[in-house]
Design a protein that fits this description.
The structure is a single chain. The chain is mainly α. It contains 15 helices and no strands. The protein is globular. The mean pLDDT is 94.
């Protein structure tokens, strides 16, 4: 029955898998089964149910690393970033630091606007792997937020020298947005969109550029993509707020045209 449930889960038939996992739990309590259930609830955006399942596991094993990581994902999805950060910190103290977890830890710090701390995490990765394009890009992104022009420019050059031109272009586009060069930024964002479709900051700043040149419908479209990628992140919350304002302006303009 377990193998059948696992097959359904892997194929994306979550309702079938869920039913089988519950049947298995009726016969015998098993943290492995609860973990699968929690994953299904997480993937189907039932975050509170997912958290209930991981908490049941953690009652018996407080340091179950994979469960702590899943709970951190759940907390992040719910917008509870400090709690997610706390859980990741526990993992980093208990196990050998992995690049992906250090990167995630840095991203959470960045979302909490703790840019200097985030940059130090990215630097840890770069010191071990100087060609880690994601860490280099994130380091440059934090440098922008910190208004550290020198390190921002250095990061751009490193990315270009190593052939990561699209990452450099995306950073440059964000920089141009901050400098009010919206049309130039839009062209760069367009050239990066295919490569970075899942990066929320691309769509967020794309929307900002469109809004500031009066193209509100395009801005709303860009911001809707931010919300789809990460519904409760700080950028997604801003995207929702800005979309509401842009929609208001769009309706006012449409009314003006009709008159």
């Amino acid at each position: 029955l377990y193998l059948l449930a696992l097959a359904y889960e892997n194929l994306g038939f979550y309702e079938n898998a869920e039913n089988f996992y519950f049947k298995l739990l009726k016969d015998k309590e098993d943290n492995r089964i609860r973990f699968h259930l929690a994953h299904i609830f997480y993937r189907t955006k039932r975050y509170n149910r997912a958290e209930e399942e991981v908490d049941k596991i953690l009652e018996k094993d407080k340091e179950y690393i994979d469960v702590l990581l899943l709970k951190a994902k759940i907390k992040e999805r719910k917008g509870e970033l400090n709690e997610a950060l706390y859980l990741l910190n526990r993992v980093l103290k208990k196990s050998k630091p992995e690049t992906r977890i250090i990167m995630w830890f840095g991203e959470l710090l960045e979302k909490l606007e703790r840019y200097e701390e985030a940059r130090k995490e990215y630097e840890k990765i770069i010191m071990v792997d100087s060609k880690n394009k994601e860490a280099l890009y994130a380091y440059g992104r934090c440098s922008l937020k910190l208004k550290d022009e020198e390190n921002f420019r250095k990061t751009l050059e490193i990315l270009k020298k190593q052939g990561f031109n699209k990452y450099a272009d995306l950073l440059l586009a964000i920089d141009l947005t901050g400098k009010g060069k919206y049309k130039e930024a839009i062209e760069l964002f367009k050239s990066c969109e295919k490569d970075f479709f899942l990066k929320e900051e691309l769509h967020f700043y794309f929307g900002v550029c469109y809004a500031l040149i009066g193209k509100y419908a395009k801005a709303i479209e860009a911001w809707s993509k931010v919300v789809k990628i990460s519904e409760n992140s700080p950028l997604a919350k801003k995207a929702k707020e800005y979309s509401a304002l842009a929609l208001k302006w769009l309706k006012m303009l449409e009314k003006e045209v009709r008159i």
